[in-house]
Amino acid sequence: xxxxATSRLVVLAGPTAVGKGTVAAAVRADHPEVWLxxxxxxxxxxxxEVDGVHYRFVSAAEFDAMVAAGDxxxxxxxxxxxxxxxxxxxxxxxxxxxxxxxxxxxLQGARQVRETMPEALFVFLSPPSWDELVRRLVGxxxxxxxxxxxxxxxxxxxxxxxxxxxxxxxxxxxxxAAAELVTLLTSVSGRQR
Length: 193
What we know:
five-stranded parallel β-sheet; alpha/beta
């Protein structure tokens, strides 16, 4: 029996409300062969979010323990309020198995992963326009006015970081963006040589 193909990690990041989670969910639904990381977060679940599927919802003390133990590949305080991080062990296990692996994280996290895993492919998910990004953020109705303003300020900084990434996918339509992402995942995972 031969060893599994070596996989390259694909890191998906982009501004708030661009649809990173929605695109990742479409990949999860249509491509079970792709392993998706589940981030840990200290924020409470939004309506419809399931612990262990969308995020691993943890207390501040649990998050502190994960940081102290070195259990996170990356972590950051996002929008000045809650912490998010990527558990290290599941990522390493998926890569060792040779599975196409996807991290859907924020800009700060992507920068940390670049430091520790520069061989990863970094994909920036961009909105079709600023107005569309604002429409999506307001339309999801999950944040207060103050939180929306905070996220839009962050989004301007995040958009300016696009040049730090290897590839940009414009999220005009979720299924098309997901298909483009899967093409990148499978072309770098060792399946196509």
